[in-house]
Automatic annotation (TrEMBL):
The lineage of its organism: Bacteria, Pseudomonadati, Pseudomonadota, Alphaproteobacteria, Rhodobacterales. The gene is rimO. It comes from the Bacteria. Transmembrane segments: none annotated. It comes from Pseudogemmobacter lacusdianii. Coiled coil: none annotated. This is Ribosomal protein uS12 methylthiotransferase RimO. SMART domains: Elp3. Its cofactor is [4Fe-4S] cluster. Binds 2 [4Fe-4S] clusters. One cluster is coordinated with 3 cysteines and an exchangeable S-adenosyl-L-methionine. GO terms for molecular function: protein methylthiotransferase activity. Its main location: cytoplasm. Residues 387-453 form the TRAM domain. Residues 154-384 form the Radical SAM core domain. Catalyzes the methylthiolation of an aspartic acid residue of ribosomal protein uS12.
Length: 453
């Protein structure tokens, strides 16, 4: 059974498209979904709308009348992969509609691939549908084309991403998300809860809460009664009986008010917080809050109030102007923070980002060297944290079962980006979505092995 690789780029993940049974004469659309989970939710919404209009979904190029490529445009490497995916779809199918973050730059796409049929920007659902209608006219049969109550999902049946808002009000110099996706727009709480209820009723056991800035949810509402609506939304979601995992939580002071809900077991004791760096001068150059010392105090308070809490974060190494002293501060901060789940990016220029114009860009070979040192530190912390779990009994959710065993996740592990717990014996009868108790027998650098209790 393969282990989870130590570093996974979630922005490069491809979605799996399930196959539909196609009736005679039914128009069929394929989908290639690149980018972060937020983009995956956009893909699900597009396919759900198309499915409701009578389109079938093809899992391959040859079975599709046209292919939608949902692109990522955040980093240069992701932009390159998006162009490659568009080229592949053109070669394999020939009829391609492009949407997503890179779609905000239509000339960039058509300059590389002039034969694409249409280009639309991020979360422009109506424009995507219009382009599909022109390329492949709908032909619905209301007596046959039934849409599942939970819509079309690209994730396994037992977990689902739940996007609660779009856009971001921050002005981080390395990021162009606000330019591509606009300012913060929070979905109404009733709509979020209604979607969550349908997902749970359909068998979803884990809700992964995502947005550009989850902790800012609802702060864009004028005349709101609650200062921080994410606090009541988290509790309401926690009352549905599924695991609720919080992603992309900006470290505002009010985040500490989420911790009691974790201690009570309403939401998972897990926070995904993009700290990005620890040295105050680097954070200032990033245009992010420069309060790493207070952040350590906050982390200590979270762990005091909820000892089971697990913290995931991402960092940027080699940011323009980063000195050896500043990088060493980040390593020292890691020693103190002892974050359980950590990933890193080597800084890349992104077209349109203000950080491109900063002085003293770090040479590529120095970025690689610092990246290796950072990940060595993160790996050592992860290995020690996991070794301490040997002998403990943990609840796990089953993701996959094959002839070799069951691949599971603990409450400390998000799908795709964190580790796994493997059950190699006594896994007969388990199926994806089961939640069982195991005793941890063995620990590695990023993964655990256990036995059913």
């Amino acid at each position: 059974m393969s282990q989870n690789p130590p570093i996974i780029r979630p922005d490069l993940a491809r979605a799996h498209v399930p196959a539909d049974q196609r009736r005679e004469g039914q128009p069929t659309i394929g989908m290639v979904s690149l980018g972060c989970p937020k983009a995956l939710v956009d893909s699900e919404r597009i396919l759900t709308r198309l499915r409701a209009e009578g389109y079938a979904i093809s899992p391959d190029y040859k079975g599709a009348d046209a292919v939608i490529v949902n692109t990522c445009g955040f980093l240069d490497s992701a932009r390159a992969e998006s162009l490659e995916a568009i080229g592949e779809a053109l070669n394999e199918n020939g009829r391609v509609i492009v949407t997503g973050c890179l779609g905000a730059e239509p000339e960039y796409i058509t300059g590389a691939h002039p034969k694409v049929m249409a280009v639309t920007g991020p979360h422009q659902y109506e424009s995507v549908l219009d382009a599909v209608h022109l390329a492949v006219p709908p032909s619905p049969d209301p007596f046959i084309d039934l849409l599942p109550a939970s819509g079309v999902r690209l994730t396994p049946r037992h977990f689902s991403y739940l996007k609660i808002s779009e856009g971001c009000d921050h002005k981080c110099k390395f990021c162009i998300i606000p330019d591509m996706r606009g300012r913060l727009q929070s979905r109404p709480a009733k709509a979020v809860l209604r979607e969550a209820e349908k997902l749970v009723e359909a068998g979803v056991k884990e809700l992964l809460i995502i947005s550009q800035d989850t902790s800012a949810y609802g702060t864009d509402w004028k005349g709101r009664e609650e200062k921080f609506p994410i606090l009541s939304l988290a509790r309401d979601l926690g009352s549905l009986g599924a695991w609720v995992r919080m992603h992309y939580v900006y470290p505002y002071p009010h985040v500490r008010e989420l911790i009691p809900a974790m201690a009570e077991g309403l939401i998972l004791p897990y926070l995904d917080i993009p700290f990005q760096h620890a040295h105050q001068d680097v954070l200032k150059r990033m245009a992010r809050p420069a309060a790493s010392a207070r952040t350590l105090d906050e982390i200590a308070a979270w762990r005091r109030d909820c000892p089971e809490i697990v913290l995931r974060s991402t960092f940027i190494v080699g940011y323009p102007g980063e000195t050896e002293e500043e990088f060493q501060t980040l390593l020292d901060w890691m020693d103190e923070a002892q974050l359980e789940r950590v990933g890193a990016f080597r800084y890349e220029n992104v077209k349109g980002a203000r950080s491109n114009d900063l002085p003293d860009h770090v040479p590529e070979e120095m970025k690689e060297e610092r990246y290796a040192r950072f990940m060595e530190k993160a790996q050592a912390i992860s290995e020690a944290k996991l070794a301490a779990k040997v002998g403990q009994r943990l609840e796990v959710i089953v993701d996959e079962v094959d002839a070799e065993g069951a691949t599971c996740r603990t409450k400390a592990d998000a799908p795709e980006i964190d580790g796994n717990l493997f059950i190699d014996e006594g896994f007969e009868g388990l199926k994806p979505g089961d939640i069982v108790t195991v005793e941890v027998d063995e620990a590695g650098e990023y993964d655990l092995w256990g036995s059913r209790v």
